[in-house]
Structure formats: structure tokens, C-alpha cells
Amino acid sequence: MFERDKDLLRRMGIPNELRPTDGWEVEYGYVLRPDAYQLRDPDLSDEERAALWLAAQVVRLGGQPAGPEALMKLGGLAMSGGGEPLAAELGLGAEVLSAAYLAATERRMLSFTYRSRRRNVQPMGILHQRGHWYLIARDREEMRAYRIDRASKFAVGDSPRAFTRPPGFSLRDALPVEPWATGEEDILAKVVFDADTAWWAKRQLGAEAIERPDGYLEAELRVANPDAFIGWILSFEDKAEILEPPQLRQALIDRVRGRS
After folding, report:
1. Is residue 56 in some structural domain?
2. Is the pLDDT of residue 92 over 80?
3. What's the Cα-to-Cα distance from 36 to each of 11, 12, 122, 254, rounded to whole Å?
4. Does pTM surpass 0.85?
């Protein structure tokens, strides 16, 4: 068993050396020196890290995009967005998209199950953004965006022209620009950005951010999708910090440590 493990380590490129463990060279043991097998810092440029980030979002293993842990070990994440996958994910299949599209174009009522609740909505249309298909629909006088791959048991109403679309309605305007604003959660997050990245955060957040006298930037944001929000915070590397609430701050720490 021990010899097999030594051979396995050698095949992986990890040398193991037999060395004395005492000053009299009576007892011997095997030593693994980290500097003999550790990967040197590749010193990637921002452009190279951005290219790796793009590849990680497009290439999927087991149907899932790569997590940020590997990129963190190679020098951090480039400022390239919220970590949302770029490849389109149809979720339940083209038949689901067909049902949603039919209901929207013929203005039929559409019902489906979403996060364990049955919804009955007026579908306005579907669109693809940030790697997912979304259904924009009016639910009890409120316009909402639903990720189609998270919905199930679609049923299209029998009556066409069951509702009218608002004049001048735009699907793009109805879908929030920020990836963390589309979801079912309702979390008030307080974040702070270091002075040297405050300009970048200010550019993305606009009037929602307040600059402090020390150059740091603070913002309170409504978060509907915690995973997307954490991905966006990670794009600032160690230059952004979630202050509140504690559970969202802990979720960020767990993501960095590779627990989720």
C-alpha cells in the first residue's frame, strides 16, 4: 500500500525523498517538499485572466459552469461581470420554450410551478440574457421575470387574446440589468469597495453608491439572486466586502473557501 502511494505521487509529479529524521541518521522518513511541485505564479495579465474567465463560463463539466476557485488560485478574477454562465441553458427543453412563446404571442394565460408555488400569469414574452432564458410576465398587476429552467409543469390557457400588453412595452426594459436583481429573494445588502476600485463600482451602480471622504464607496442594494450577487462581488477580488447581512457575508466566505 505504501509503495503504491509513493508511485502514485511520483506519477503525479510530486517527488518524495528519503531523509533522516534525527541528527544521528538512525531514523529515516519520506519528505515532500512543497517547492518541488508547487505551481509557480504564472503572473497572468488582466487580459489573460479575462480570457480564462470567459472560457470557464462557456465550457461546462457535468452541465455546470466552472466555479471561481481555480481562477482565484491563478491570481484572482478579472472584472468581467457577475459570474453568470454565458452558454445558453435551455433547462427543461425546447418544448417548454415553445409553450411560453406560444402563450406570449397569442396572449394566452400561462400557468406553471415556480419555487414550489403555482403561478398563473399573463406572459409578455421570452428573452435570453446572461446564459438563461427568462419569461417576462404580469403576475397580479406586477411585472416579473422568471428563469424558465427553474419552472415546471407549464400549461397554456385555452383562450387567445385573454389580455392586452401595455402600450410601448419592452421586454429588455422589464428585465433588470443587474444579474442579482432577478430572483425570488429580497435581501438588503450593504457593501463597501476599496478606494482604488471605487470608480469601477460607481460606474456600475451609479446613484446607488455613496463615496466616503476616505475614497471608499458604500452601497445598499436589493438582492434577489444571492449567487449572482456573490459572483459579482468576487469580480472585485479582495477590494469589495459585504458588511450586511451576516448570512450573505458568510455565503461569500464559504464560496471563496470552496464550500459551496
Report:
1. no
2. no
3. 14, 12, 63, 30
4. no
Mean pLDDT of 13-17: 83
> In this structure, are 235 and 214 located in the same domain?
yes
Residue with cell 480564462: 52
Cell digits of residue 182: 432577478
In a domain, residue 86? The reply is no
- Local confidence band at 120 (pLDDT 50, 70, 90 cut-offs): very high
Residue 49 lies in a domain: no
* Amino acid identity at 233: I
Q: What angle do CA 191, 194, 197 make, to 5 degrees?
A: 105
Parent domain of 155: 94-175
Residue whose C-alpha is closest to residue 146's, from 165, 170, 118 = 118
**Strand 28-31 to strand 217-223: parallel, antiparallel, or no bridges (unpaired)?**
unpaired
Do residue 191 and residue 237 come from a single domain? yes
In a domain, 183, yes or no: yes
